[in-house]
Write a structure and sequence with these properties.
The longest helix is centred in the first third of the chain and has 52 residues. About 90% of the residues lie in helices and about 0% in strands. By secondary structure, the protein is mainly alpha-helical.
Length: about 90
């Protein structure tokens, strides 16, 4: 009798675990895409920073550095949104 009660009590937890596993592949894929989005933005920002180092004027250098910062920040924001959406799945 106690084994049956324990089994019945464990069923909701097992169902929840199975549901989490079923969603985890999709969630993991979204989180990987978020990481790739952030990595791509960082690579673009690094390229802009490299261009800034070769700039012919201080104004051009500052503009490229500002653009690099904006690209990196936008990538981080987009990745955060994607991760939040994955968490809500």
């Amino acid at each position: 009798m106690m084994k049956k009660i324990a089994l019945i009590a464990a069923l909701p937890a097992a169902a929840l675990a199975m549901t989490a596993c079923a969603e985890s592949a999709e969630e993991e894929q979204m989180e990987e895409q978020a990481e790739m989005t952030e990595d791509a933005a960082e690579a673009d920002a690094e390229m802009l920073d490299d261009m800034a180092e070769d700039a012919t004027s201080e104004t051009q250098e500052d503009a490229l550095e500002d653009q690099a910062d904006a690209v990196e920040e936008a990538g981080e924001e987009k990745a955060d949104q994607m991760e939040d959406a994955a968490d809500e799945m």
